[in-house]
Amino acid sequence: MFKKTTLKNGLRIISVPQKNAKTVTVLILVGTGSKYENKKINGISHFLEHMMFKGTKKRPSLMAVAETMDRVGGSYNAFTGQDYTGYFAKVEASKFKLAFDWVSDIYLNSLLPQKDIEREKEVIIEEINMIYDHPMNYIGEVLWPKLLYGNQPAGWDIAGTKENVLGISHKELVDYRERQYTPENTILCVAGKLNSNLVKKLTNKYFQKKEKKKPIQKPKVVEKQKNPRFLLEYRKTDQSHLCLGVRSYNIFHPKRYTLDVLGVILGGMMSSRLFIEVREKLGLAYYVKTDIETNPDTGFLTTRAGVDTKKTEKAIMTILKEYKRISQKKVLNLELKKAKDNLKGKLALALEVSDAKASFYGVQELFEKKILTLEEIFKKIDKVSANDILKVAKDIFRPEKLNLALIGPFKEKTKIEKLLKI
Predict the structure, then answer these.
(1) What is the largest CA-CA distance in the chain?
(2) Catalytic: which of 37, 49, 120, 293?
(3) Residues whose CB is less than 8 angstroms from the CB of residue 397 and which lie 6 or more positions away in sequence, other chains included
(4) CA distance between the termini of the chain
């Protein structure tokens, strides 16, 4: 069970005790990410995340920040998405107070030293280069959002462009943090072996700051599509990488759990339809997987695969065939049960550890302002029927909704583009 408390300044605290756990995780989630940026400062959320580790008043250098956790074998990191930014530390349970102090220190007291900004720009540029050099990641993280959403925040690279990164100033970082990192825009989630009274005591010690500024609100995502879309990036690669999928539902849609089950049936497990067809029967790919992403304002289903360039068309046609099949014929009860049990099993396994638990509860509160327990989610999954799967598949798998991003040594796109219009 979990406990939620809201301070007078608007900060929300989620406590998730695990009696038999050996660890504890302290996670801070801030409701800001790349969707909140404008064109000039695209990449600033990610840049700020990097800079928050460069030193605080108490720990005045990156070395001092890092050594605090390294000395106790803690796992610590940060992450930036389109809708949120997070900072966490996971430690052996007896080191809870240290982890709490460390995470709160980074969030509240980071100095953002001017001397480190120029050097960190080069680090981030190398991160951008690294993603580009891994087409398997680049196509999903950069090309796919660009294809779906184009020139708006939802379609921009979370890390920004190299030009933008080089142009971001110290003042812009400070102003953005002051505007976005406010108590009402922040969630503190603690999960694992913990003492609720100690959580309350530490929260009152560190997080009583009041903030009058209102955070920037993200612009509404514009989604317009009347015809299939195709984005090709030419590269002399030994293997072609593709993302083929459709726009679907956000987290508030009543059929979001149906969509999750549908994704598992198509390509979410080793015995899924696409894994068997694309890899096992036809030998077209090493990796093939269907992913579902549901966010507060956007959502999509996409199948990713790395295929023999000479067999790219065959792979695309095979995926499209499975999309068509599931939208025309009801899944059998045995296959439906397998997918639901798989989805529930993976959720249960993931939530055995404190860091996953913190994220599970914290992200729900951040996005939806309400929290479902694992058991409540299981009940929603169990209610999904074969008719539900068919209706959702018919709704999303329409020719005019198809999107294909492709990286490979293709100079002519017409032939492949025609496959989407079948």
Answers:
(1) 65
(2) 49
(3) 246, 323, 324, 326, 327
(4) 50
Looking at 71-180, list the stretches that DSSP marks H as alpha helix, in order from N- to C-terminal side.
96-109, 114-132, 135-138, 144-149, 162-167, 170-180
DSSP 169-230: -HHHHHHHHHHH--GGGEEEEEEES--HHHHHHHHHHH------PPPPPPPPPP---SS-EE
Q: Where are the domains of the chain?
A: 3-206, 229-419
For position 210, what pLDDT does the model report? 73
CB under 8 A, 24+ apart: contacts of 165-168: 165/43, 165/47, 165/121, 165/124, 165/125, 165/128, 166/121, 166/125, 167/40, 168/41, 168/43, 168/44, 168/47, 168/117, 168/121
Strand partners, 79: 86
Question: How do residues 191-225 score in pLDDT, each as one tens digit?
Answer: 999 988 899 999 999 998 777 678 888 999 999 89
Whether 229-419 and 3-206 are alike in CATH topology: the answer is yes
> Residues 114-123: pLDDT tens digits?
999 999 999 9
Query: What CA–CA distance (Å, rounded) separates 102 from 97?
Result: 9
Written as one string, the DSSP assignment of 265-302 is HHHSSTTSHHIIIIIIIT--EEEEEEEEEE-SS-EEEE
Q: What is the pLDDT of residues 276-319, one digit of tens each?
A: 999 999 999 999 999 999 999 999 999 999 999 999 999 999 99
pTM value is: 0.95
Is 122 catalytic? The answer is no
Strand partners, 71: none
**What would be the CATH architecture of the domain defined by 229-419?**
2-Layer Sandwich (3.30)
Yes or no: domain 3-206 corresponds to CATH 3.30.230.80: no
What are the CA-CA distances from residue 288 to residues 265, 267, 311, 397, 409 (Å)? 13, 7, 14, 18, 20
CB 182 within 8 A of CB 65: no
